[in-house]
Design brief:
Mean pLDDT: 79
Organism: Brachybacterium hainanense
Largest sheet: none
Order of helices and strands: HHHHHH
Protein name: DUF559 domain-containing protein
Number of helices: 6
């Protein structure tokens, strides 16, 4: 682990999780990451590699350029707040916002 920039004896959660991801077996690292997400100490987006995040945004932009409306949902919206999320998605579908509008 590289040296920390501060003198706090307890490293930041992000540094601990990055170190765990590099040093622990995959299953143990995944358990730590899932636990941090479940406890609300980090969002699921933070657990994904930066390259994946960038690829997702590139795909979103490409789809928007074709006229599609991209809707991203969090794990919490799907797993913990599904009734509210479903209502909002149904509103979007009723308005037809999910359909690609073809040029005249």
């Amino acid at each position: 682990m590289r040296s920390r920039p501060d003198h706090d004896p307890v490293p930041a959660l992000e540094m601990v999780l990055v170190h765990a991801a590099r040093c622990l077996p995959p299953v143990q690292a995944a358990v730590l990451l899932e636990s941090a997400v479940h406890r609300g100490q980090m969002g699921i987006e933070a657990a994904r590699p930066r390259r994946r995040y960038d690829e997702d945004r590139d795909r979103d932009l490409y789809l928007r350029s074709l006229g599609y409306h991209v809707t991203r949902l969090t794990w919490e919206q799907v797993s913990l707040r599904w009734p509210q999320t479903e209502l909002m998605l149904l509103r979007i579908l009723r308005r037809g916002e999910h359909r690609r509008r073809l040029p005249p």
